[in-house]
Design goal:
By secondary structure, this protein is α/β, with parallel strands linked by helices. 28% of the residues lie in helices and 29% in strands. The chain has nine helices and 16 strands. The strands form four sheets. Strands 1-4-3-2-5-8 form a six-stranded parallel β-sheet. A six-stranded antiparallel beta barrel has the order 11-12-15-14-13-16. Strands 6-7 form a two-stranded antiparallel ribbon. A hairpin with a 2-residue loop joins strand 13 and strand 14.
């Protein structure tokens, strides 16, 4: 898959590109609903012997259009989104830098410059996709703005348990610790990428349960605090483990507010400091709590370890 970064106004010309079937959307999470849109574009491209493409935006429009200017935590930051979209068999990924000037484009301008001028022959998007200034363009207006130069397909709403599959819903589930339900909507376990760093040396190995302290990239949404059954990818291989997300109240001063993500990798004894790893959250086991003694903490960690082993034995 070729990734093309576009800054407005872009300089690409339709003659530089093959005929495309393009899926449009922000696609944070690339969940099952997004996958249906993208897979429709890939399928149609194959039928018509065109190339498939996805257009997304960076950063999230709310960063530019919102009034609070708060950083956004993504389900899939751009690098992660790129990997998932590539796995769906897409030929081109267009990433448009979302700026105030780009946001001000009228719907017809957007279509002319970012669809027609990119040699798009067919557009695929979800039923609620909007484009142009203030989102005035919709999939109902797309045929009018196409001016007969391309066709479009609207993908209907995907529901799970009578509710729309959406990035907002998945965010809520992750914040509530509902990892398994989030997996159902994403089509894969929620994961984040980070680097293994040195911890404070007060737990882990001294308790007999060495942990990898993960410094997760700031762009990722972090799940609810607590203990999870996880898988961690180290040097290309996945390993089962137990993850604690929280503030380690048994050891730390209550006034300290530094969140830690620690993974005890089952049956793993290698040093991996400095390695980039991926953590998948599979199941929420329990909430974080303060223990009266180190002995009671060790007992609980052993129970967590057994619970994770049992979980993966049942689900594998």
């Amino acid at each position: 898959m070729e990734m093309i970064m576009l800054n407005h106004p872009h300089q690409l010309n339709r003659n530089e590109l093959p005929p495309l079937v393009m899926a449009l959307g922000f696609f944070d999470g690339v969940h099952k609903g997004h996958q249906r849109v993208i897979e429709t574009a890939v399928r149609k491209a194959g039928e018509w012997q065109f190339k498939s493409a996805v257009m997304t935006f960076d950063p999230h429009p709310s960063v530019v259009l919102g009034h609070k200017h708060r950083p956004i935590q993504y389900l899939t930051p751009l690098a992660e989104k790129q990997k998932v979209i590539q796995s769906l068999g897409v030929d081109y990924l267009f990433v448009v830098r979302f700026t105030s000037d780009f946001a001000a484009l009228e719907p017809q301008q957007f279509v002319d410059e970012y669809i027609i001028n990119l040699h798009v022959k067919h557009v695929v998007a979800g039923f609620d996709y909007t484009y142009g200034n203030l989102g005035k363009g919709t999939m109902e207006t797309m045929p009018f703005h196409a001016r007969g130069l391309f066709e479009s397909t609207t993908v209907d709403k995907l529901e799970y348990q009578d509710e729309k599959v959406s990035s907002t819903r998945i965010r809520r589930l992750i914040k509530e610790g509902k990892a398994e339900e989030a997996t159902c909507l994403l089509g894969r376990p929620y994961q984040a990428v980070g680097t293994v760093i040195h911890g404070d040396k007060r737990g882990g190995s001294k308790l007999g349960f060495p942990t990898a302290n993960i410094d997760v990239d700031d762009d990722y949404l972090i799940p609810k605090t607590g203990v999870y059954a996880v898988k961690i990818k180290v040097k290309g291989e996945w390993h089962p483990g137990v993850c604690n997300i929280g503030y380690r109240p048994t050891f730390k001063n209550p006034e300290e507010t530094c969140l830690s993500i620690e993974v005890h990798i089952l049956g793993f004894r290698h040093s991996i400091y400095g390695e980039e790893v991926a953590v998948q959250w599979h199941a929420y086991l329990r909430g974080e709590k303060k223990f009266d003694s180190v002995a009671s903490l060790i007992k609980q960690i052993e129970q967590d370890k057994q619970a994770a082993m049992q979980y993966f034995a049942v689900t594998s």
